[in-house]
Write a structure and sequence with these properties.
single chain; 480 residues; Rossmann fold; 2 domains; five-stranded parallel beta sheet; three-stranded antiparallel beta sheet; 12% strand; elongated
Length: 480
């Protein structure tokens, strides 16, 4: 904090300081960012034409708002980035628990301090972080937690009667005065607690139990909620919903490319030991697994398939390849399709299944999603390529033994026995001849996995062999 900042109320007045309501403060800073072309919400990908314009409108209108969407849609991250719309520092009366405005305090402590010391009352400066209060709503949250209650210890230590305002223990909401108060998972908050928020949203004040006062607060109220929670665990009561200025719907990535960009941004891929090369087609397969799960009737779509699924899957895929590289002394880490099967626990744990899916089993469903994702990725990148020689090799009894722990060079040597396989991936640019053995091996696995998706080759625990499928083809394998 700069020493030139006012340290007393008198110095603050002399500086020309004027108090600004927090919603106006946020609005003015947003207008400045809009005018300068500055990025408003860094790291928020895929919302530029949908969520963010609505969010900007809500802020410009000085509305309290709620972000409504399924899990893993960056709701909490967006709320926390609202911090950047606050001024870097804010003056408060020294020792205030509710960020008292030095020119117009609301607490008894602030009023007494100003009466006793006048322009000599000390001023402190608080940063943005101290003006943002976030609470995860749970059924056990009480009015005392949110608004406040009498504190008998304060009364005893100060010699005050219990009705004295100096005995108040302020809850989270008053402590967010002149800042932002965020409640995550609002439907989980008990109905009677939601009622306690009515006044702050409409009249701008709260009443603390046992005290004949109304505390005027200056707060931007923001919330998140999951539509699933409206019936599964609770709901937002209608009068509270009516008082919230804007309901903004979030969503999952609308296309695979956007999903890949989010996963690339969020996944921990900088391992620090060996160079890492993730083939772009493998990253696409990982993302398509999530996209396919979001449209599969065996997966509970009310619960959703979080964007955390492809992020954690990618991290697990890289870890599997990293483990292999360390064991074999390879010079770089290059994940392959086989590593995606090693990441099954990162898939099965993030899908809520419907009855049909439970009967089939999460692991079997996850394996099917991987095959379908590989088939779609290959089709978009190399659909229509001549694979008849490859298929003929397996139909004539040929087999290809594969191990997830095999070195890349050994894999390429093994793939070389399949007529036309190496030539295919190189001619299609999936892994150019100048590429490493790891990339060539990964591309060959993609081709074979795509043939599995088309039911022309069978995948076994030991590798690939003649197709031995029975029953109807899984929906969405060779088609769209």
């Amino acid at each position: 904090m700069s020493d030139s900042r006012p340290r007393t109320v008198g110095e603050l007045k002399a500086s020309g300081y004027r108090s600004v309501p927090v919603k106006d403060e946020i609005r003015e800073n947003l207008i400045r960012k809009l005018g300068s072309g500055e990025e408003l919400f860094p790291g928020i990908v895929g919302y530029g034409d949908s969520v963010l314009p609505q969010l900007v409108n809500a802020v410009l209108a000085r509305h309290d708002f709620i972000l409504l969407g399924l899990r893993g849609q960056a709701k909490s991250r967006i709320l926390r980035q609202l911090l950047e719309l606050l001024d870097p520092f804010l003056p408060i009366l020294a020792g205030s628990e509710v960020n008292d405005d030095p020119l117009s305090p609301v607490s008894k402590h602030g009023k007494v301090l100003l009466e006793e010391m006048g322009d000599h009352a000390p001023v402190e400066w608080v940063g943005r972080q101290n003006r943002y209060v976030e609470k995860l709503a749970t059924p056990d949250v009480t009015i005392a937690d949110m608004i406040g209650d009498v504190d008998p210890i304060k009364a005893a230590r100060g010699g005050h009667i219990l009705a004295d305002e100096l005995t108040i223990h302020y809850g989270l909401l008053p402590r967010a005065n002149r800042g932002i108060f965020a409640i995550n998972e609002l439907p989980d908050l008990a109905g009677k607690i939601q009622v306690g928020l009515f006044n702050i949203l409409q009249e701008g004040d709260v009443q603390i139990k046992g005290y004949p006062i109304r505390l005027p607060l200056d707060v931007l109220m923001v919330f998140t909620a999951n539509p699933e929670d409206y019936t599964a665990r609770g709901k937002i009561i209608t009068p509270l919903k009516d008082r919230i200025g804007a309901e903004i719907r979030t969503h999952y990535p609308l296309d695979v490319e956007t999903g890949m960009a989010i996963t690339r941004q969020e996944a921990w891929l900088d391992r620090g030991h060996l160079p890492l090369r993730v083939p772009d087609f493998l990253a696409e397969v990982v993302e398509r697994v999530a996209f396919l799960a979001r449209s599969d009737k065996r997966v509970d779509q009310r619960s959703g398939v979080s964007q955390r699924l492809p992020i954690t899957v990618m991290e697990s895929v890289v870890s599997s390849a990293e483990q292999r590289s360390f064991r074999l002394g390879e010079e770089e880490i290059v994940p392959r399709l086989g590593d995606l099967y090693a990441a099954l626990p990162s898939i099965t744990g993030k899908m809520e299944l419907e009855y049909e899916g439970e009967l089939q089993g999460a692991e079997k469903l996850a394996r099917e999603l991987i095959v379908r994702a590989a088939g779609l990725t290959y089709r978009d990148r190399a659909g229509g390529a001549d694979v008849e020689d490859i298929v003929a090799y397996f139909e004539e009894g040929g087999a290809l033994q594969m191990s997830e722990d095999a070195a890349a060079g050994a894999c390429v040597e093994g793939f070389g026995v399949v007529p036309g396989l190496l030539e295919l991936v190189e001619n299609l640019g999936l892994a150019p001849s100048a590429a490493s053995q790891g990339l060539r091996a990964a591309a060959c696995e993609l081709v074979l996995e795509a043939l599995v998706a088309e039911r022309r080759v069978s995948r076994t625990d030991g590798g690939y062999a003649r197709a031995r499928f029975e029953g109807p083809m899984p929906k969405g394998t060779s088609g769209g």
